Amino acid sequence: MENRPVYKRIILKMSGEALAGDQGYGIDPDRAEEICEKIKSIHELGVEIAIVIGGGNIWRGAQGVARGMAQSTADHIGMIATVMNGLALQDSLERLGVTTRVQTAIEMKAVAEPYIRLRAVRHMEKGRVVIIAGGTGNPYFTTDTAAALRAMEVNAEIVIKATKVNGVYSADPKKFPDAVRYETLTYKQVFAERLQVMDMTAFTLCEENNMPILVLNLWSGDDLKMAVLGDSSVGTLIQG
């Protein structure tokens, strides 16, 4: 493993649930601070970082749809929830001394900048962490797809999907203790074996644009930092 990062610019995709405490919902300030300490550790290496955050800790659109809510309405509520999470992350990062900007695909000028690709790139070039909220700004698309799309737009080198599992397994490791973790995979293997990495729209977008995906456990020690430094023992790398 090298002592310098192997990636210059990354998209870090996090679920909203990462911010939830033991209760499983809402925003836990201690959890947010713990995440931001990890982000700070890779920011200090000189990595340019854009974060795409979900909103599942506040609202899950499927629950609304199941009760008869229009999909578009449910999805727009979810997009607004991601902005709330983005502001919470910004607050934690700023208190750690990391200059941060929140951009959102749904305009909320009083609390965040509109998402503008070149402005996001410029912020990163100046060493600011950019939190991209609001998904794609359109219903029917997940924040996985937003992460893939933004990665292409800002010319990121990789999408790092931060989860609670240290990579992609042959089966659910919680149900099958003998499940095997893949160190590397090709896009074709993921399709052939029907492995769960991210939603199909997002995954196909990454495949078509040769965007590598790294799935890792955000909560496992320094795994995020180790991955950025090129430690192949961390997570599962998916590429052509």
Summarize the structure.
By secondary structure, the protein is of the alpha/beta class.
Topology, element by element:
Layout: E1 9-14, H1 29-43, E2 48-53, H2 61-66, H3 71-95, E3 100-104, E4 113-114, H4 117-125, E5 129-133, H5 143-153, E6 158-163, E7 168-169, E8 181-182, E9 184-186, H6 187-193, H7 200-208, E10 213-217, H8 223-228, E11 236-239
Parallel strand pairs: 1-2, 1-6, 2-5, 3-4, 3-5, 6-10, 9-11
Antiparallel strand pairs: 7-8, 10-11
Helix pairs in contact: 1-3, 5-7
Word description of this protein:
By secondary structure, the protein is α/β, with parallel strands linked by helices. It is built from eight helices and eleven strands. The protein has helices at residues 29-43, 61-66, 71-95, 117-125, 143-153, 187-193, 200-208, 223-228, and strands at residues 9-14, 48-53, 100-104, 113-114, 129-133, 158-163, 168-169, 181-182, 184-186, 213-217, 236-239. Strands 4-3-5-2-1-6-10-11-9 form a nine-stranded mixed sheet, with helices on both faces. A two-stranded antiparallel ribbon has the order 7-8. Helix 1 packs across helix 3 (71-95).
